[in-house]
Amino acid sequence: MAGSGAGLVDGAESGSAYEPAVPAPLNVPRTPTGNADVDAQLERLGDVDHLAADGHIEVYEDVHRGLRDTLTALDARPGPQGAPGSPSSYGMNNRS
Q1: In sequence order, which residues have a C-beta less than 8 Å from that of residue 46 and are 6 or more positions away?
Q2: Which of 29, 70, 74, 75 is an S-S bond match for 37, by CB 3.0 to 4.6 Å?
Q3: How many whole angstroms separate alpha carbon 42 and alpha carbon 47?
Q4: In 3D, which of 71, 14, 17, 12 has the Cα closest to residue 41?
């Protein structure tokens, strides 16, 4: 049996080029949140369906950055006039 199995690694010939699988959709459901900015970022996650695994990190980092920016913008918005704890709720803006 000389030569039988020679040059095979796990059933494949040694020296043959490795071909990664074609990207396949992950089909992860994305439920709308009602916030247009957040929903746009969640839809961006669908871009990974067309990328090889090594391209996913760029999309995930982009989405994370977008979500962080959206949350930061929410924190930066002024609250409604007279909101609890605001100066106007204690009459501090109504100086005579």
Answers
A1: 30
A2: 70
A3: 10
A4: 71
What are the Cα distances from residue 69, in Å, to 17, 43, 53, 83, 88? 43, 16, 25, 24, 28
Query: If you ran DSSP here, which 8-state letter would residue 30 be given?
Result: -
The average pLDDT across 28-39 equals 91
pTM beyond 0.70: the answer is no
Of 20, 22, 42, 17, which Cα lies nearest the Cα of 32?
42
For residue 20, give both structure tokens.
């990664």
Spatial distance between the Cα atoms of 52 and 24, rounded to a whole number of angstroms:
8
Predicted pLDDT at 95: 52
Give residue-wise pLDDT tens across range 66-81. Answer: 999 999 998 887 766 6
29: pLDDT confidence band, cut at 50, 70 and 90?
Answer: confident
Name residue 87's amino acid: P
- pLDDT at residue 8 greater than cutoff 90: no
Q: Are 45 and 63 in contact (CB under 8 A)?
A: yes
